[in-house]
């Protein structure tokens, strides 16, 4: 008897939690298919009369700068992730595979940097980006995404220490130099760690709002976050268009989640605890 | 990969004679490690240490961000932060986010515990509870602007159960921070939940079986198996939650821009710097936050030593 009550309570709370997660999204999804007239006259919980009304999506895409947003996000994402991987693996290789004077200091510098909350330091980072003449260019976001990711270095360091040094030595006996070893031996073996970094970093960059907002104010440099943010002005009262834009931004995330579920869970577990 | 992992015993024996030499082999080689480090270190210094250093310097000036001459004002900015109530009082807004963060951890722990037992549709529930964490922050902001707007989703739901005119969720200064902190809980709970669930599931199944044999009930299992297994991740999450509450920024900035008494310390800092061009004062505010976060982290290291070593 007691266990039946407990089981019922358990499923009730799980269903309630799921509803809390889903309902705000479902109402936005329904809203995206409504006409302007419908949006004004029907309540949020009423489904649209025509589920095939894609007009709002067309408006969001063509007038909302979403195409530009996806292109800019795509460029920034690919270049920054590639940069993060190169920088992170090089740093991890140097620190893990060499014993040199100053190694502890270097490690400490990377460690200390993880503690600095990045939003607040933008007050001063802004001056550095201006001095480098990168303000209002994609370069600003790329440099900041690729150059300040210390968590990636830790993921590579952890993984690299599990690759036996004997492999380096075998390659060295075959006459390979350090760069060949890094490029031909270590990098291919780091594939699982690289996949983890691609996933965590990819999600983070796709979702980042403040850095593009602060450093790339010009309209044609809008990424998806900032393009969507700008919907609030011109489409202020057209909630159905805002909803369509929001759904367009969520769909790639949903697809990525459905296909990469296991990797995302694993990646976040190894990334979040640093 | 498979070709690399031979018989471990064999590998160990093959390595034995080298191991004394290994240290030498991998030592030395003078400049080579620095060639690998030069780019990562350059980025680290230019994008992290120079800004932090500059920030400390700016915080002692009344710089406006443009003027080539910076006027040194000593600790004047810090005195202003702690004496002008309108600057300091925004820290009280953090209390809403702190309460939200604690609710978030409790909920995450509750659902992680539930799902660690045998459950139908476990992966579905896990996915649904976790998914909000992955969504773009601006998209979440817009979803909840619609959710909280007058006549929006929340009002419609309340009307369905007979509650009318519940008030302005985002317009009323006494409600706005609760609404925004609630949105943050909705957004971030999934991450804590998945981390807790991962830690609980890393407990070997035999422990539960042994507990069953000893006649343990679910509460005993929670108290004596689950709780100790996630003590560390719980501690880390708690510290991160405090730091996150103090530096709450994205949800309120996107949704209200800090209007109606929802301004947080970080919103105030970036507005001071970029809207009102008081880089000196803003830097001092950033320094205050940085120091608070560093102190919290130091406390965490003391309470939960070896965090890194054990978690990995």
UniProtKB/TrEMBL annotation, chain A:
Cell compartments where the protein resides: Cell membrane
Q: Which InterPro entries match?
A: MetI-like, MetI-like_sf
Q: Which Gene3D superfamilies match?
A: MetI-like
Q: Give the GO terms filed under biological process for this record.
A: transmembrane transport
Q: Does the keyword Cytoplasm apply?
A: no
Identify the Pfam families for this entry. BPD_transp_1
Q: Which residues cross the membrane?
A: 12-33, 70-93, 105-129, 141-160, 181-206, 239-260
Q: Which UniProt keywords apply?
A: Cell membrane, Membrane, Transmembrane, Transmembrane helix, Transport
Q: Where is the ABC transmembrane type-1 domain?
A: 70-260
**What topology in the membrane does the UniProt record assign?**
Multi-pass membrane protein
Q: Name one GO cellular component term.
A: plasma membrane
Q: Cite the PROSITE patterns for this sequence.
A: ABC_TM1
Which SUPFAM superfamilies does this chain map to? MetI-like (SSF161098)
- Similarity-based family: Belongs to the binding-protein-dependent transport system permease family.
Q: What is this protein called?
A: Carbohydrate ABC transporter membrane protein 2, CUT1 family
From TrEMBL, chain B:
* Signal peptide limits: none
Name the predominant localization: membrane
Membrane topology qualifier: Multi-pass membrane protein
The source's domain of life comes to Bacteria
Which InterPro entries would you find in this protein's record? Answer: MetI-like (IPR000515), MetI-like_sf (IPR035906)
User: Looking at the keywords, is Membrane present?
Assistant: yes
According to UniProt, the name of this protein is Carbohydrate ABC transporter membrane protein 1, CUT1 family
């Amino acid at each position: 008897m007691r266990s039946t009550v407990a089981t019922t309570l358990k499923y009730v709370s799980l269903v309630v939690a799921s509803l809390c997660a889903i309902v705000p999204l479902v109402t936005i999804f329904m809203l995206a298919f409504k006409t302007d007239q419908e949006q004004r006259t029907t309540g949020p919980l009423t489904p649209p009369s025509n589920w095939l009304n894609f007009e709002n999506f067309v408006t969001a895409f063509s007038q909302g700068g979403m195409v530009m947003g996806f292109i800019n996000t795509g460029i920034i994402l690919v270049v920054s992730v590639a940069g993060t991987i190169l920088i992170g693996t090089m740093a991890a290789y140097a620190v893990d595979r060499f014993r040199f004077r100053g190694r502890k200091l270097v490690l400490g510098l990377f460690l200390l940097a993880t503690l600095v909350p990045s939003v607040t330091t933008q007050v001063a980072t802004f001056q550095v980006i201006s001095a480098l003449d990168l303000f209002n260019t994609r370069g600003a976001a790329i440099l900041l995404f690729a150059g300040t990711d210390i968590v990636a270095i830790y993921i590579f360091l952890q993984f690299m220490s599990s690759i036996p040094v004997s492999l380096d030595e075998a390659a060295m006996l075959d006459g390979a130099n350090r760069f060949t070893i890094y490029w031909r031996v270590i990098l291919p073996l780091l594939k699982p760690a690289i996949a983890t970094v691609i996933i965590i970093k990819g999600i983070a960059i796709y979702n980042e709002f403040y850095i593009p907002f602060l450093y790339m104010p010009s309209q044609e440099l809008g990424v998806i976050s900032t393009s969507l943010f700008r919907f609030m002005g011109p489409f202020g009262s057209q909630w159905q268009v805002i909803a369509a834009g929001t759904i367009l931004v969520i769909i790639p995330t949903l697809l990525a989640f459905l296909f990469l579920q296991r990797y995302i869970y694993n990646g976040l577990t190894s990334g979040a605890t640093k | 990969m498979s070709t690399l992992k031979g018989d471990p015993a064999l590998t160990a024996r093959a390595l034995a004679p080298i191991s004394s030499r290994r240290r030498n082999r991998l030592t030395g080689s003078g400049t080579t490690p620095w060639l690998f480090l030069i780019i990562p270190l350059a980025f680290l210094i230019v994008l992290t240490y120079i800004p932090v250093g500059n920030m400390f310097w700016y915080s002692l000036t009344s710089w406006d961000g443009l003027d080539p001459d910076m006027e040194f004002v000593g600790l004047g900015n810090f005195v202003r932060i702690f004496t002008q109530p309108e600057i300091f009082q925004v820290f009280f807004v953090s209390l809403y986010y702190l309460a939200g963060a604690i609710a978030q951890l409790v909920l995450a722990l509750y659902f992680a515990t539930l799902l660690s037992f045998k459950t139908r549709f476990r992966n579905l529930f896990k996915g649904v509870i976790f998914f909000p964490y992955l969504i773009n922050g601006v998209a979440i902001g817009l979803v909840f602007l619609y959710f909280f707007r007058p006549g929006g989703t929340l009002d419609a739901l309340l009307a369905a159960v007979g509650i009318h005119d519940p008030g302005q969720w985002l317009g009323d200064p006494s409600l706005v921070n609760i609404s925004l902190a609630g949105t943050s809980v909705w957004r971030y709970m999934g991450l804590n939940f998945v981390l807790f669930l991962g830690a609980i599931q890393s407990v070997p199944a035999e422990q539960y079986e042994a507990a069953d044999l000893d006649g343990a009930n679910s509460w005993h299992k929670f108290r004596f198996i689950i709780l100790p297994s996630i003590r560390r991740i719980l501690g880390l999450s708690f510290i991160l939650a405090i730091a996150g509450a103090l530096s709450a920024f994205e949800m309120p900035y996107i949704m209200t821009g800090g209007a109606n008494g929802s301004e947080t310390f970080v919103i105030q800092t970036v507005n001071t710097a970029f809207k009102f061009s008081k880089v000196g004062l803003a830097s001092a505010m950033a320094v205050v936050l940085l120091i608070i976060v560093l102190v919290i982290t130091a406390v965490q290291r003391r309470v939960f030593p070896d965090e890194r070593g054990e978690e990995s």
